[in-house]
TrEMBL record:
It holds the Pfam family HIT. Residues 5-113 form the HIT domain. InterPro entries: Histidine_triad_CS, Histidine_triad_HIT, HIT-like, HIT-like_sf. Gene3D superfamilies: HIT-like. GO terms for molecular function: catalytic activity. It comes from Anoxybacter fermentans. A motif (Histidine triad motif) lies at residues 97-101. PANTHER family: HISTIDINE TRIAD HIT PROTEIN. This is Histidine triad nucleotide-binding protein. The active site is at residue 99.
């Protein structure tokens, strides 16, 4: 989608450093980190939110979770981490391109705000 910031990032148009890339996804560090490790993992395909996922995306979502697991190992998050997907306005979603936050490196509190 031409006016989507994450589509532009995934296309390499923003000069964002990728910490992981394959044919389906890219991962990069969040511009406003809320934890020592704060990585965003996004599909290259434009999907506005988790609410628009279909059965056809099942493989993609499974793949994203495999990528997250590998990134967590690479970042030495041996004590645990959190995967967050904000969906919709009340869910706190601000960028309308599906993304998963990988958070770690400190004790994360529950419940979130
Ligand atoms: P969410 O609230 O779940 O939609 O999170 C969107 C996140 O995206 C937010 O933590 C900030 C991050 N973000 C927004 N624009 C950019 C950008 O241009 N570069 C990077 N690295 N992160 C961005």
């Amino acid at each position: 989608m031409s006016d989507c910031i994450f589509c532009k990032i995934a296309a390499g148009e923003m000069g964002t450093e990728f910490i992981y890339e394959d044919d389906q996804v890219v991962a990069f560090r969040d511009i406003n980190p809320v934890a020592p490790v704060h990585i965003l993992v996004i599909p290259k395909k434009h999907i506005p939110s988790a609410n628009e996922l279909t059965e056809a995306d099942n493989q993609l979502i499974g793949h994203i979770f495999q990528v997250i697991k590998k990134l967590a190992q690479k970042e030495n998050l041996n004590q645990g981490y959190r995967i967050v997907n904000n969906c919709g306005r009340e869910g706190g979603q601000t960028v309308h391109h599906l993304h998963f936050h990988l958070l770690g490196g400190r004790n994360l509190q529950w419940p979130p705000g």
